[in-house]
Amino acid sequence: MVYDFKREERYFYLPGKRVKLVDIPKMTYLAVSGHGDPNVEGSEYKRAIAALYAVAYTTKMSKKGDHKIKDYFDFVVPPLEGLWWQDGVTDGIDYGHKKKFQFIALIRMPDFVNQAVLKWAIQEASHKKKQDFTNVKLLQVNEGKYVQVMHVGSYDDEPQTIAKMHQFITKNKLETDFNSKRRHHEIYLSDPRRTKVENLKTVIRIPVKVKE
Question: Which Pfam families does the record match to this protein (predicted)?
């Protein structure tokens, strides 16, 4: 049976439109870092996405080749995710200055993906695509307490949903907890190339702690 993270772990990937507090365990990701406006053609972000998917699908499809990965099981490649921040912005992100975005683009991987598996997958993908994918790294993230909610609609309308999240944070005696290891986190459940803007589904997460 093919393991589908989104289906089997709905609690993390398919929240409702009501804000909830969640405790995110340690997860393993393929990761590419960069900066700049993600919407610009040829941006670092778009190149990062291409690299992530190339390595992710090479790992998944290893089942059809001679290279056998220890503890491998077949899986659906999970949705694209992103950690976002801007230098000088200490409480979330400023949607009005996308050129200043810093990001880590992510795709979750099963725990059998280690440095040796990553090295092999990068070599295979780079050879097949005739590109250099050595910018793809392996990252383990143990996020802890976040509030999360499903945002439906344009990415530019996210501030309205985030305002609702901040109301929940205040009401429940929490406070945001942004730092170098805890970022604004988004999970992209829709393909913007094939989905109407008003139907885009994005999971938004904000790191929190109990208010002192």
Answer: GyrI-like
Give the residue extent of every domain in the chain: 5-210
Per-residue model confidence (pLDDT) at position 212: 83
DSSP 170-197: HHTTEEE--BTTB-EEEEE-S-TTTS-G
- pLDDT one-digit tens code per residue, 89-128: 999 999 999 999 999 999 999 999 999 999 999 999 999 9
How far, in Å, CA of 101 to CA of 163, rounded?
20
How far apart (Å, rounded) are the C-alpha atoms in residues 152 and 157? 9
Q: Which of 11, 32, 146 is nearest to 92 (CA)?
A: 146
Q: Give CA–CA dist 109/28, Å, rounded.
A: 6
Q: Which residues pair with 102 in a beta bridge?
A: 35, 85
Level-2 CATH architecture, domain 5-210 = Alpha-Beta Barrel (3.20)
CA 65, 55, 22 angle in degrees (round to 5)? 120
Q: pTM higher than 0.90 for the full model? A: yes
Phi first, then psi, for residue 139 (nearest 5°) are: -135, 130
Angle, CA 36 vertex, CA 140 and CA 198 arms, to 5°:
85
**What's the pLDDT tens digit per position in 136-148?**
999 999 999 999 9
